[in-house]
Automatic annotation (TrEMBL):
A ribonucleoside 5'-phosphate binds at residues 57, 78-80, 105-108, 148, 159. The keyword ATP-binding applies. The gene is LOC116194754. This is UMP-CMP kinase. It comes from Punica granatum. Binds 1 Mg(2+) ion per monomer.
Length: 209
């Protein structure tokens, strides 16, 4: 059984490698506006938006065998093992007819980053990084109103801590490779999108088309 699953994963990987997708990682603290801006980027630049958090929440709803584990991790603001998240991202990319993806909320830690690179061989075109104060992010999360189990003050504080300790090193890693495009995300939505547009239009044809 295990080897059959492995064979399926390997086959999916080969198909994805052949597809040579363009990937932009969208990073930033919880509530920095990643999902909001990705919706705008989709409309203007023809990307497909894949939110790792949304894919994990869909996996819980689908009643998958990993559902309870994922649910518990999300409630605690912890990062789900890469194996699970990468499989979801990989399948979503393969199922899509598109070859340009915004991967939002991933990689969340060094394990996510290294495993994604090792499995998919995909290097991001660049990393869009939304910078925002915790004070502002907290305000946004507490009024998000999407019925999320993790938008409560106790879990929010844990998520901020995980972001600083585990996710910022990933941003720094890409910064050292010159791949980070930093955006002031504390401004109103429209102003943030103006800055985002400047970043995308400055890219080569494959990204900006
Ligand atoms: P993330 O995906 O980074 O967690 P969201 O896009 O879900 O963040 O945004 C979190 C909340 O903040 C949502 O309710 C959204 O409408 C709101 N929001 C997003 N961007 C801004 C902004 N620039 N100014 C004020 N509120 C915002
Ligand atoms: O990005 P979002 O805020 O939707 O993520 C919600 C939660 O999903 C995170 O706090 C974390 O528990 C989980 N997650 C994860 N690995 C990712 C992205 C999200 O475990 N790469
Ligand atoms: Mg989001």
């Amino acid at each position: 059984m295990g080897s059959a699953v492995d064979a399926a994963t390997m086959e999916a990987t080969q198909r994805l490698i052949k597809k040579k997708p363009t990937v932009v990682f969208v990073l930033g603290g919880p509530g920095s506006g990643k999902g909001t801006q990705c919706a705008n980027i989709v409309k203007h630049f023809g990307f497909t938006h894949l939110s790792a958090g949304d894919l994990l929440r869909a996996e819980i709803k689908s009643g998958s065998e990993n559902g309870t584990m994922i649910e518990n991790m999300i409630k605690e603001g912890k990062i789900v093992p890469s194996e699970v998240t990468i499989k979801l991202l990989q399948n979503a990319m393969l199922e899509s007819g598109n070859d340009k993806f915004l991967i939002d909320g991933f990689p969340r830690n060094e394990e996510n980053r290294a495993a994604f690179e090792a499995v998919t061989k995909i290097e991001p075109a660049f990393v869009l990084f939304f910078e925002c104060s915790e004070e502002e992010m907290e305000r946004r999360l507490l009024s998000r109103n999407q019925g999320r189990e993790d938008d409560n003050i106790e879990t929010i504080r844990k998520r901020f801590k995980v972001f600083v300790e585990s996710s910022m090193p990933v941003v720094e890693y890409y910064e050292s490779k010159g791949k980070v495009r930093k955006i002031d995300a504390a401004k109103p939505i429209e102003e943030v999108f103006e800055a985002v547009k400047t970043v995308f239009t400055a890219q080569d044809d494959k990204v900006a088309a």
